[in-house]
Every structure is written in structure tokens, then in C-alpha cells.
Structure to design on (287 residues):
């Protein structure tokens, strides 16, 4: 922005110099150019326009802008226990719906805050105040999310750090059987985790097992893909700065909202396994 503004000043000064050289009687032109230069150097603050009201957004625009249907926005707000109003540390007051809309719009597309000013009728500094705040189940819900972890770390290290095994040890099926996850070979085999058979001389049943489970494992990629498909901001690497932004928290917020989306509109994973998601309220009740 600063470079563009400097270029504007240079262009105006060049025009002023040419005008003064080519005309000996140019008082009025000089005055016009002076006014033009001053307006460029000290622009009037642009009008923000009215603040966006969810009731003024059409059904189609709501789903395109926020990824949720209009009649589900208030339900989502209530299920997430977003308060009716929020006051920033600087005293700026937002409605709860404004906060939800700003968050969803920011995540849904790699917008800059200045791009959202005209949409929401809120200044860029005020927008920043509002914004700053996996295991995939067969029904499409992201049941466990941990990270981020440095890419150089081994998968077994990440499994140990995630506390996933103790969580699985604490829950059982109604008949007493344990829950079992299928994971990468690096996770090994235990009471709660199975992985592909390894070796050069596998039996036919072992080969068939590996082939079938390999097809099933793709659902994990569907889960990750849905997050970045609906919330492209999380996949826009130029906008995400490690150590300067809480990128891990951004991703967890995106995963939580995708779970909400799955509860309301289902998912490819749920359709693949023939399992419907829980209700939005059940999913967020943490029971």
C-alpha cells in the first residue's frame, strides 16, 4: 500500500513538472494540480456505510459468504454459546452475529481485513479486534485434533504427545469392547490401534485387508480437504505467518466449524459409510 501511494505521488509530481514547463500562463492549471496533489496526499476517510445485518443478506449470498445457510446462522450462534454482544478492550461493541459473520467470512476466503471494511461497514482496526479471539469418525466428525507439531517429528512421537491412547482407554462400547483406530504403520499395533500388515510375503487375507483399509483411510484426507475447501484462508500460506500468528488455533477453529457444518449438512465421509452425523447441539455438548 505504501509503495503504491509513493508511486501515485511521483506520477502527480511528474505531471505537475510537465505542465509547468509547457505553459507560461497556467495559474489555474497549477492550482488544479495543487488541489489534486493535496487530495492524493491527504485523502478524506472513506465512508464505511451501514453495518451488515444478517437479515439483509440473501439465502444464496449467506451460504456463499459464510458457508452456512441463513436459517442456521442463529442456531449455530446459540450452539456455540456466542453472547448477544461483545465489547472489545477498546470499547467497540459488536453484536454476536457480527462476530460470527466476520469470523466465517475471514476463514472462508483469504481476505485482508481492509477487504472486509465495505462488506461489514466496520473499520479495519475494529475488525481486527473482533477477529482475534485428527481422528475422523465414520460419520464425518473430526473426533480428535492435535497439533501443530514440527514436520521433522516422527508419527510415533506425535501419537504419544497427543494423549490419544489414554483417551481411548477411558471409553468402551456398551458391550465392553474397546474402540480401535486404524492408523499409519508408524503407530504400531496395540489394544486400541491397528495398522497395515507389513512384510514381503503377505497372505492373501492380509493383502485384502491392507487393500480394503487403504480405501477407507482416504476419508481422513476428505476431512482435511473439507476444512480448506470451505475455509480457504487456512490454506493461503502467504497470509499465515508462523510465530507471528496463532496458526494452530486458527486451524482448530476451522475444524470446529467444519464439524458444525457436517452436523447440519452431512459430509462425503458420512455418506460413504452410510452414517449420519449427530445433531449440532449434541456435537457441541461435549457429552
Amino acid at each position: 500500500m505504501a509503495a503504491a501511494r509513493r508511486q501515485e505521488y511521483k506520477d502527480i509530481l511528474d505531471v505537475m513538472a510537465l505542465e509547468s514547463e509547457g505553459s507560461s500562463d497556467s495559474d489555474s492549471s497549477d492550482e488544479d494540480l495543487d488541489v489534486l496533489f493535496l487530495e492524493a496526499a491527504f485523502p478524506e476517510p472513506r465512508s464505511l456505510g451501514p453495518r451488515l445485518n444478517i437479515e439483509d443478506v440473501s439465502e444464496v449470498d449467506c451460504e456463499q459468504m459464510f458457508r452456512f445457510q441463513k436459517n442456521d446462522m442463529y442456531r449455530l450462534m446459540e450452539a456455540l454459546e456466542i453472547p448477544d454482544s461483545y465489547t472489545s478492550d477498546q470499547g467497540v461493541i459488536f453484536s454476536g452475529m457480527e462476530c460470527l459473520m466476520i469470523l466465517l467470512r475471514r476463514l472462508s476466503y483469504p481476505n485482508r481485513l481492509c477487504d472486509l471494511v465495505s462488506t461489514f461497514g466496520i473499520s479495519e482496526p475494529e475488525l481486527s479486534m473482533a477477529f482475534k479471539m485428527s481422528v475422523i469418525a465414520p460419520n464425518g466428525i473430526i473426533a480428535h485434533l492435535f497439533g501443530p507439531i514440527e514436520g521433522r517429528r516422527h508419527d510415533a512421537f506425535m501419537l504419544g504427545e497427543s494423549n490419544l491412547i489414554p483417551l481411548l482407554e477411558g471409553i468402551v462400547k456398551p458391550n465392553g469392547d474397546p474402540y480401535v483406530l486404524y492408523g499409519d504403520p508408524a503407530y504400531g499395533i496395540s489394544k486400541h490401534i491397528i495398522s497395515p500388515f507389513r512384510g514381503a510375503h503377505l497372505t492373501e487375507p492380509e493383502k485384502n485387508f491392507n487393500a480394503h483399509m487403504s480405501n477407507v483411510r482416504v476419508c481422513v484426507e476428505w476431512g482435511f480437504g473439507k476444512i480448506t475447501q470451505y475455509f480457504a484462508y487456512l490454506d493461503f500460506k502467504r497470509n499465515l505467518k508462523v510465530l507471528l500468528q496463532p496458526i494452530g488455533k486458527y486451524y482448530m477453529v476451522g475444524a470446529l466449524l467444519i464439524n458444525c457444518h457436517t452436523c447440519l449438512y452431512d459430509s462425503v465421509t458420512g455418506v460413504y459409510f452410510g452414517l449420519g452425523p449427530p445433531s449440532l447441539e449434541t456435537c457441541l455438548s461435549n457429552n
User: Anything to note?
Assistant: The radius of gyration is 27 Å. The chain has two domains: 54-108, 133-285. DSSP finds 13 helices and six strands in the chain.
